[in-house]
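FORM 7B: Structural annotation worksheet

SECTION A. Query
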Amino acid sequence: MSVYRPVNHLLPMATLRKRRRLPLPGRVLVREGQEVKPATEVAVTITEPRYKLLDVARQLEVPPQKADALIVVKPGDRVQTGDVLAERKGLFRRTVTAPVEGEVVLVGDGQILLRLRSPRYALTAGVPGKVVQVVEDLGVDILVRGAVVDGVWGNGKADYGLLQMAAESPGERLSAEKLRVEMRGMVVVGGSCDDPQALELANELPLRALVLGSLRARLIPVALSMDIPVVVLDGFGAFPMNEAAFRLLKTHAGREAAVVADPWDREEGTRPQVIIPLDIPDAPEPLPVDEVQVGRKVRVVRQPYLGLVGTVVAVPGENTLLPNGLRVRAADVRLDDGTHIVVPLSNLEILA
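SECTION B. Predicted structure
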């Protein structure tokens, strides 16, 4: 029986259908057939409202019942930062002011509930190309041609800039010292990263985006808090970027590159990608899944062999007994150093 697994694409030429979606229903701003640039806003929405509860009684140092009489706003009032919401007059005058812009929702029991102004969320194209489908209220699909490198993790941001190598070899560690001021506004490629200061500096310069082979798992919160896209190509830990991806990116150093750090979601069909747009003739769309066969290049996506790359040398038709006692469909994989490992098929992805 054939077994199909997700494909991690590493292609010098491809035609991609890039999916761009709002987190919440909103309004699509472009039409089918329209040419877009990476910074083109394709859809907008208003994010979910946030609320802030103000304890007026405590701030005025009076009982809740007395505080209600000192509140000078009512539900439905719009307030700006610094507007007076409540006031206790007298020799020792005290006031409560709005800490942020918003709308008064509730007043009572010595408290005020503010609904904060919901920020506008703009979804950009992320890549240059043509809109080939508009999904009402949600977003678009964009057709783009070029080289593509799939990643395994992204922090949800997207941007575009000149590709710059910060590593001479796939295993070179990215440190803060390697991020120079002239890299400001560029898409920078590093090997592995275990230095929080390097991430902080990348955000402060700022770079346009950061592409890494591997990242220490403890730095995920730092990467998520960054304002620039961060894409991890191979996995979490401290190991080199795969050679094929490094060579492809290095070949295109100095070209424009789009970094779309979408979280990997197999159900939604999204994953982080680095795309180098190229003026090339039509190329086939890569398949999202393919069959695990002898001779296919694969990568392990779960521990204990996370991130290791090798070649399938056998796919037994029967279930294989693993050291943990489970019997599952598995493959015999020869790693690049010649070592053989047995890996459940569900723990593999195909490299194309």
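SECTION C. Observations
The first strand starts at residue 4 and ends at 8. The mean pLDDT is 89.

SECTION D. Sign-off
Analyst initials: ____
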